[in-house]
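CORE FACILITY INTAKE
Project code: CF-77B
Contact: R.S. (postdoc)
Sample description: multi-component assembly, two entities in total
Requested service: structural model of the whole complex
Turnaround: standard
Below are the sequence entries exactly as provided by the requester. Do not edit them.
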Amino acid sequence: MALPAPYDEMLDPQGQPRPHCRGYADWLARRSTDWLAEKRAEADALFHRVGITFAVYGEDEGTERLIPFDVVPRSMPRSEWTLLEAGLKQRVRALNAFLHDIYHGQEILRAGLIPPEQVLGNAQYRPEMHGIDVPGSTYAHIAGIDIVRDHEGRFRVLEDNLRVPSGVSYMLENRKMMMRLFPDLFTSQAVAPVEHYPDVLLENLKRVAPAGVTDPTVALLTPGAYNSAYFEHAFLAQQMGIELVEGQDLFVRDERLWMRTTRGPQRVDVLYRRLDDDFLDPLAFRADSTLGVPGLLHAYRAGRVTIANAIGTGVADDKSIYPYVPEMIRFYLGEAPLVDNVDTWILRRPDELAHVLAHLPELVVKEVHGAGGYGMLIGPTATKAEIAAFRERIVAHPERYIAQPTLALSTSPTFVESGLAPRHVDLRPFVLSTRDEVTVVPGGLTRVALRQGSLVVNSSQGGGTKDTWVVEDAPAPLETLPC
Amino acid sequence: MLSRTADHLFWMGRYLERAEHLARLLDAHHRQSLLPRSAATLVTNWQATLDSLSQSAAYHQVHGEVRPDAVFHFLAFDREHPGSLVSCLQAARENARAVRGTITAETWEALNAAWLEARTLTSGTSPEAPMREGSAFLEFVKDRAHLVHGVITATMLRDEAHAFLRLGSYLERADGTVRLLGARWSDETNTADWAVVLRSLSAFEPYRRLYREAVSRDRVTELLLLQDTMPRSVHRSLNQVNDYLQAIARNGRSSGPGANAGAGNETLRRAGELHAQFHYARYADWAPQLGAPFFTALTRRLEDLGSRIAQDFLVPMSTGVEAA
């Protein structure tokens, strides 16, 4: 099956630069391949030096890899961003309202909009959270919403990440890298800044401290230096000036959370955790977890410490719940969704299952609990045998799957072995919430599938990243810069 | 500051210093190997060095008898050996990585870049002919150690993090100088050898400025033990250890659950006592006691200080009040 021609982020169907990136495209056209290759090598060397790397398990000690960085940015005109931003804020407000609701009155279930067993029977639903009031009724303080663009150029939400979304450090480091490599571009282009992200995050985390705490201590909980996202944890802790703690640094006493310091125990009021629910408290969740803090849930339920994101947010970003988010927006906010979902078939519904089974070679089928590009069938690129095998798994457990049309994800010119070539991209903006305010720094993390034709952008599957620019709709042309 | 963070900083300081010390020590051997002397003497010297580093057993287990090239490789390049220079550099870097949010980005980058480059420079070295490029590598390590110290001085806040980092460095430095003197303290060691020791500790020019006389064992030992203006002397290192320990103790302690208000008092007293002995020493009084047992006893006291610091400030306390 042939997919429709994808939308290109930089070039219009005639191959001409879109108005917002005319200046840049012109500048880029005058750079040689060798020069770009030099810049890329410079970037790689700098990333190694700064240690923006992730450890690879099971390889030679000290082996650390880079997530490939592309020197060509993905840019977006401000008018499009403004629309997308409004849609993101709306969506995350609804998701937070949903989380509050299902752990309190469950009105959305009583209204019959979502089958109760979909929520209450979900492995990510935490009964321990029922009836607990979290500060500001905010559950997903930090959300990473994965956005794609279809062949008509419309933004669609592919996935919500409400547990421990990662990648924001790459958004910030990619920008720093671009400014270091191409300072002249930034003096002549008005690229919306993203550097204030850690400040907003810290302010927000302080605001959700337990009632009565005036000068809250915030700490970031990491699984440790060998976690693949450790760089990001250390980076964010440093940028916010807060302690980077591991489970072994913390203990609970008298319903309060303490960290072991050189001066004795010190209170922790807000815990920005980068550890999944399952590992947070061996007394409440997985008993074999050595990464968490015994008794943490107890202190949390007593309201003596705030955890961000809250425990139990995973139920709202589960792929089985995703199809209902537009309903949530209508139900809680009384608004029409500003950014649509990708059309989705829910295979627990017999008629939708029948349709999907009849069209498997054209569709993408996803396991509802899968993550990172695993447990997924991409019909158009799969072999007949792979499709047949997947069909059996679907028929056996249809409730474990959803299906979507194969999207012709938009492309962006990318510097690859053969020179500049279009590659598929997505976008993960980071949405920060408190009771009164939802903030999105302009842009986000653009992930790019570096293999030609590939639609999988996950870094675990060979994806790279790009800097993401929000620029004026039709900026003044660039000064003629020396090549 | 987190106890675990302090622990990483302390060991980052120690391992960086240990790597630098090994570079200096190996450099001394390299220079000595250029002087005319018997093969037997070279072997004796290497054996003394292995002993002073407490690495003799580990070496013999892997390589058997002492061969200069093999020892050099073992102490400089062997990634399998945790006491080698490259292993120390890696340990310093791993500790820094664990606290990269606490040290400045410049400090982290300087150390990480040194480690990356050292990996490249030392890949493919073998116990057969390690010394050919070895000398350049030792210079590289010294340069980078100086760079990292400079970056720390130029960029880091003079807070607790800095104090723990420096505390580790200076305790290790005192230890290194004591062990080096112990290994060289024999009647065989001649004027040329002592000059090599001076050069390896960047102490040759200071010696000339201070003494204006021929290099002799007594003057060299006096300089490296007691001269408090001499950067790598034991006395000066103990000044620093004492100062940073007091700065850390001055911060006071909280009264949360399991807090121990008196932690560190005995450690401070012992550090102060040791320092005072150096501060008020006269070389002439010490000279008759100098010898292997003296240096070994000194090494033990420094070890005691290190484990007490770990106990009082670094190892996370038990949550129980009973641990107080």
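Facility notes:
- Chain A has 15 helices and 23 strands.
- The longest strand of chain A covers residues 419-428.
Invoice: internal transfer
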